[in-house]
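We treat protein structure as text, and this decision shapes the records that our systems exchange. We quote a single record here, exactly as it is kept in our systems:
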Amino acid sequence: MQKVILQAEPRNIVGRQVKSLRRQGLVPAVVYGHDFKPLSIQVPIKELERVYAEAGESTVVYLNVGGQDHPTIIHDIVRDALSDKFLHADFYKVRLDEKIHAQIQLNFIGESVAVKGLGGILVKNMSEIEVEGFPQDLPHQIDVDISKLIEFNSHILVKDLAISDKLEVKADLEAIVALIQEP
């Protein structure tokens, strides 16, 4: 996977005045982390949308602030309830030599014969899974192929997922990720 870089600038505007930043197409944000003094920044909204779609909340994003790269993970995004636009972003500065815990989104792909042909109901018990690993080894998402579910009561367990051996799964390996129920 290629290095995801986001350009940012230090921010002096705080409080209610950040509305003027948003009108200029900028999103107020903050960078914080272990042994790192919090830094207020501003990022272009279009760039943040692109990076968030590409990296999500589990892939390392290199924030370039004043010519210096900071390895971070998008820790939290605040969106407007009506327009769904970004209002604020939190970036967590990580150390690339230190393991972290992260929630990785599950992406359900394929089509189940039991759902299409037999009228079964796909039940998704999990939408994300907790793992531990080095920040640079964390994937954007984990694909779950539901085409393997061909009859009623068939299921996919956590241990059946294609997860890199560089990551340690913190969930119960016998937990059911998805299953097919009778209609």
In short: Helices lie at 18-23, 45-55, 113-116. The radius of gyration is 20 Å. The longest helix spans residues 45-55. The mean pLDDT is 89.
